Amino acid sequence: MKDSFWIRKNHFTPEAVICMLLPVMAALTCLCIGRMNLSVPEVIRTLLGALLRRETDGQSYSIIVNLRVPRILMAVIVGAGLTCAGATFQALFSNPLATPDILGVTSGTCVGAILAILMSRSVLETQFIALAFGLVSVWITLRLAGKKEGHSVVFLVLAGVIISSLFDAIGSLLKYTADPMNELPEITYWLLGSLTSASYKEILIGSPLILAGITIIYLLRFKLNILSLSEDEAKASGIDLKKTRLIFILAAPMITASCVSMCGQVGWVGLLIPHCARMALGSNNRFVIPAGISLGASFMIVIDTLSRSISVIELPLSVLTAIIGAPVFISLLKKNRRNLK
Q: Would you call 33 helix, strand, or coil by DSSP?
């Protein structure tokens, strides 16, 4: 893939413009869709009225500004974050099937959320406790992996599998002790993933770590190309492999923990979207990361809109991502296999 894919003659290419506009167009379209459908001019007029503090229709303002906009913003942040984390791990471990929860961060975050629900904490307190447990699980994984030179990646993956299994067992034990009438349904629904609790306050609490992690990975994305090389080739580049790898290992789980703490488990996004970006643009992470961020944000906006509008009862996000993601991933694998023949 040539460098001119994004910029050609000091101007953005049409492909780059499409990638940048895709989340905006998806957000604008999905703001119109719901139990009460609205027109595009009405949505734009309401948003401008809210920004300029002009008087607008009270019903439209409540639906768009108070209900749909927070969900759209959270969908953008979560979709971009999970995609960025997934693409990072896939490049870091040279494995296209690597997922954002490979270091056990998702299991740890879920245990924290289950504990918070059992203690009857508020939504924001649940988010904070879940995030803390997710970061602690990553710290345990890093400590367990040790500092064995030359085998750190293998030990890291094995440590992640161990910690993930341990926290899954703890989570299952906690669910077993939960009240089956009140607490267990709430835990089950949270684990399936949802943006129902989206609010501006929740976004302000959970998004800083996600945005910081995305920024770090985006600025250092060219180094992912080096880390995906063999050990000898990577050392010949002159960068500090151990330090660089640690930065990515800390940034990606930080994103994942924050995403899971805000909306629960959302599968397939961190696996499918980076794979689609690589199939379209090649393996150069300088292009895969920004394109994946755009595609991931747009994908989550569409998924959340389907979850709240496709039926009378809001469907969990992980159910929809699996129903849509699995067939798409299978078709991509078949297409890729035909191209290799």
A: coil
Residues 60, 148: Cα–Cα separation, whole Å: 59
User: Distances from the Cα of 101 to the Cαs of 122, 249, 286, 326, in angstroms?
Assistant: 25, 11, 23, 18
| pTM of the predicted protein model | 0.89
Q: Please list the ranges in the chain whose pLDDT falls under 70.
A: 1-12, 147-152, 231, 336-341
CA distance 30 to 34: 8
Based on DSSP, count helices (H) and strands (E) in the chain, helices before strands. Answer: 15, 2
Percent of residues in the chain assigned helix, strand, coil, to nearest 5: 75, 0, 25
In one letter, which amino acid is 246?
L
User: What whole-number distance in Å separates Cα of residue 130 and Cα of residue 108?
Assistant: 8
Query: Whose CA is closest to 82, among 99, 102, 96?
Result: 99
Which of 283, 323, 252, 215 lies closest to 83 in space, CA to CA?
A: 252
* Amino acid at position 280, single letter: A
The answer to whether 307 touches 79, Cβ cutoff 8 Å, is no
Judged on CB neighbours under 10 Å (0-12, 13-18, 19+), 59 is exposed
Within 10 angstroms of residue 213's Cβ, the number of other Cβ atoms is 25
